[in-house]
Model the fold of this input.
Amino acid sequence: MVQWVGAIDHHVVQLCFALGCIWYLSGGDWRSWGLNTKNLGESKRLLTRGFFPVLVLFLFFGELLVPLLTDTPPEFGYEVTVVNVIGILVFMGIVSGLSEEILFRGFIQTYLTQYFDRTFTVFGHVLPLSGLIAAVIFTVAHVGFTVFPLGIYHLQIPQIALAFVLGIYYAIAYHETESLVAPIVAHNVVNGAIMIATLLASGILT
Done:
């Protein structure tokens, strides 16, 4: 099986699990778990001003220029076909953000908010403790490990650091807008930008 197909399958199962938990715990009140379009103006502001657009540009050009400047083009990892390119773009630019934000922010952060009401101020924004915990869990989820036997088979420090920073941003965006719109869009934009830059640097889209 091509890796992106397995990744989509995994995230669809993950999404169904999160939605099932939300449905059970909320009694059908999806809106209070972030599945709404509240505060779209604030979501737009968070996505288009300040930290986020600067980060996206930094990631895009970093992913694009570093391989070119070091003459080490990244490997695509799959047979280069139209189906594979479209498949990985769909996964990175649509599926990953949708499923992961509904799980980590919509389900986990909202659930933890019932038990942790402390908040922190981060560069003028409010970060709830529940969001910080969700960000840590989100970060750990980017580490590949086995339970039997216990061991780590995938650990990239830059990826882990980025996941934590983004997890904090997504948590703040969700808390301040009471909606998953901004976290989902931001997540998909980041992943999509990185993948497009990787494809450009590898020469596939040129």
Observations:
- The longest strand covers residues 119-122.
- Residues 82-113 form the longest helix (32 residues).
- The chain has a mean pLDDT of 93.
- Residues 135 and 165 are 8 Å apart (CA to CA).
